[in-house]
Amino acid sequence: AKIGGRSQTRFFDKSMTRDLVRRREIEDELRAAIQRDELSIFFQPIVDLETGRIKTFEALVRWFHPEKGELRPDEFIPVAEETGVIVTLGNWITAQAARVAATWPEEVTIAVNLSPLQIRAPGAALGIRNALREAGLDPKRLELEVTESLFVEDNHATAAFIEELSEIGVRFALDDFGTGYSSLGYINTFPFSKIKVDRSFVSGAQVGRKSDAIIRAVAEMGNTLGMDIVAEGLETIEQVQAVRDAGCNLGQGYYFSRAVPDYLAAMLLAQEREE
Ligand code: C2E
Ligand code: CA
Ligand code: CA
Ligand code: CA
To answer: In this predicted model, what pLDDT tens digit does every residue of 142-177 receive, in sequence order?
Structure first.
């Protein structure tokens, strides 16, 4: 049955069609981008604040579009999620990242971001296991970053995914901590080895004594539970000192390095080992 007037119906149909066409385009382009080698993984160091050494690299995807130039993940990951392409894309990212990490010294780990949708998809854990096996990477060297949004829904697939991969040694990090639906319940339920305190607490507009107290509280909890605490978005030496004083043991941000291509990541590691 037709609801509303004639023009309204037509408008609805048109905009819906347009939206579908646009999504379809980006979806096709994304799939093709993988084939055409337009996507690459960049690596941003996560540094031990005591020793200054790189402990982990976070894999961050980049899309070098032939016409649109460099696209940031914030622009296309949401589309990949909406269209379901994230499953193919995510498996590709994990496989690539694992392959690069396998060339690094053994003590250096790789962190890969996972979307909730990717985790809930059938065969998600198998996709990760295959990537590890094909790269010959020890599961203990892989860390999966998930956000609080994953736990909004109480989902059996999520729990099964985390359990299956934890059992083989894969570690989990809670990303963007403090921005979402923060609840200590899932920290208690799931085996996180790391909490990443969101950049907004470190370099946001409202940073001050309040954020400092929050970082301190999170770091104290983390230390007590034997978890690593990463401060994200460190851009200045003052911020580095502040988060170290607050009890964070790891740091990430432009102060240390932006995300760099694999050959530069290898150079950073080689430099450290020469010193
Ligand atoms: P995220 O996981 O919180 O990643 C950190 C983001 O902060 C990255 O942006 C990084 O370049 C940026 N960043 C790091 N240090 C600093 C700093 O000191 N200052 C500032 N202003 N920014 C800093 P990027 O690469 O644009 O990624 C944005 C988001 O896109 C990521 O946030 C993550 O949620 C998502 N993303 C990136 N790569 C992937 C991926 O491979 N898979 C999935 N599912 N999501 C991804
Ligand atoms: Ca992340
Ligand atoms: Ca983050
Ligand atoms: Ca984020």
So the answer is: 999 999 888 877 788 899 999 999 999 999 999 999
From 42, 113, 237, the mutation candidate for ligand 1 (largest count of ligand atoms within 8 A of CB) is 113
Instruction: Look up the ipTM and state it.
Output: 0.97
Kindly give the distance from the C-alpha atom of residue 5 to the centroid of ligand 4, in angstroms, as a whole number.
42
Please report which ligand is nearest the Cα atom of 44.
1
Q: In the chain, which ranges are E strands?
A: 39-48, 54-65, 69-71, 109-113, 142-147, 171-177, 192-197, 228-231, 250-251
Please tell me the distance from the alpha carbon of residue 42 to that of residue 225, in angstroms, as a whole number.
31
32-41, 51-60, 241-250, 260-269: which range is least confident on average?
A: 32-41
* Ligand 4 mean position, distance from CA 176 (Å): 6
Buried b (16+ CB within 10 A) or exposed e, 180-195: beeeeebbeebebbbb
